[in-house]
């Protein structure tokens, strides 16, 4: 989880540790809080695997200030990031990982986004049914407050399922048309109606017009 987040942020620009931790907590603070105790071991591991380089800030040294190590993504790191972003299996549907994957959906291919969203929805639908079954079996054993807590949890799951369904429908609507022809889409204004989609056909010149069917050997004039 942290490896993906660090590589994704460093793909935007090199950063020193303080800035990187700040960006992590800004982007993912709703789901996780990252400490230096977890960040720096991750950076050392990525450096050992040649996914990032670590360079002292020479400007700070010249000015007599505190030296800061700047971390930069390498070519191997970009390949590793692409591989991680291409994964859409069950681990990306879980609570701990889904928020991280969703935060970097802008860097993820559309088919992988859709696979993750559908997997997450399926996982939550399973959870919803388990909660419903548990409520039906144990309703008599719970006091009113415990029941309200259970209902609150069920409503939260149902709300996320609806949200995921909307996202899935949007992803499917934006998916490119299938087939051999290449879709050519004109982007409409934000909030406006969907743009019309046409199909680019061959641009080769039209075949010659056949001769006069009357057999007189005179060819028809070219079409204008």
TrEMBL record:
Residues 173-224 are annotated as: Disordered. It comes from the Bacteria. Pfam families: PadR. Gene3D superfamilies: Winged helix-like DNA-binding domain superfamily/Winged helix DNA-binding domain. Residues 6-82 form the Transcription regulator PadR N-terminal domain. This is PadR family transcriptional regulator.
């Amino acid at each position: 989880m942290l490896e993906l987040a660090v590589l994704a942020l460093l793909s935007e620009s090199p950063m020193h540790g303080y800035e990187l931790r700040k960006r992590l907590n800004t982007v993912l603070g709703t789901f996780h809080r990252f400490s230096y105790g977890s960040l720096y071991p991750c950076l050392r591991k990525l450096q050992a695997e040649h996914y990032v380089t670590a360079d002292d800030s020479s400007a700070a040294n010249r000015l007599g200030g505190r030296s800061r190590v700047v971390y930069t993504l390498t070519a191997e790191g970009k390949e590793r990031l692409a591989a991680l972003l291409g994964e859409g299996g069950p681990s990306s549907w879980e609570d701990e990982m889904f928020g991280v994957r969703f935060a970097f959906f802008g860097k993820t291919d559309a088919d992988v986004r859709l696979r993750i969203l559908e997997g997450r929805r399926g996982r939550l639908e399973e959870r919803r049914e388990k909660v419903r079954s548990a409520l039906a079996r144990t309703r008599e054993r719970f006091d009113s407050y415990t029941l309200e807590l259970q209902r609150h949890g069920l409503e939260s799951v149902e709300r996320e399922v609806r949200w995921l369904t909307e996202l899935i429908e949007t992803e499917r609507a934006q998916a490119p048309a299938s087939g051999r022809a290449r879709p050519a889409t004109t982007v409409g204004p934000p909030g406006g109606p969907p743009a019309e989609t046409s199909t680019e056909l061959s641009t080769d010149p039209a075949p010659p017009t056949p001769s006069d069917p009357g057999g007189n050997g005179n060819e028809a004039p070219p079409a204008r």
